[in-house]
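Onboarding guide, step 5: your first structure request.
Type a short instruction followed by the sequence, for example:

Predict the 3D structure of this protein.
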Amino acid sequence: MTTQTQTAKSIIINGIDVSEFEKTVEAVKDQPELGKFRFRARNRWDWGGYNRTTIKGFYGAGEEHGTEDRTFVLEADEPPVLLGADRTANPVEYLLHALAACLTSSIVYKAAAGGITIESLESKLEGDLDARAFLELSDDVRKGYQRIRATFKVKSDASAEALKACAEFSPVLDVVTHGTPVSLTIEKA
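The system replies with structure tokens like these:
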């Protein structure tokens, strides 16, 4: 299986149209406001640990996208040991998924932009969490993950260092490692 092809109009590496990627980079370079995006999520609690988030539409590249035809529903629950019904992944497992998916996409896109072909890519993530803070049993541990380990197995001619440099462009990696201010408002219904 080849992951690099070329047509008269475009160069495809790792399934990414590098010509279009370069056009996007130039457009944002010329008009920085095109690089600003706003993603949205709406959540509704059902019962116990079970709730659903709807993702519909987003703002980016100077306009709204997918408000009519783009809807995704993500469900969250807790395992029985955390008093849930275990109908789906829990929120901290979704965080691992978001990190894995974003790191993967970042490696693939940035590698393609750099002319690096990837034949295969797999990852394994583990996160250590101590529930004592959530249960108000300790002020000595944080509520979230204390540590996350991400291991990637990549088949490519590129060096591990070059691939790691690609991964470091991940927006979710940035959020997890540097934190992002969150404005939390509670309104009475």
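Each response can be followed by summary notes, for example: The chain has four helices and eleven strands.
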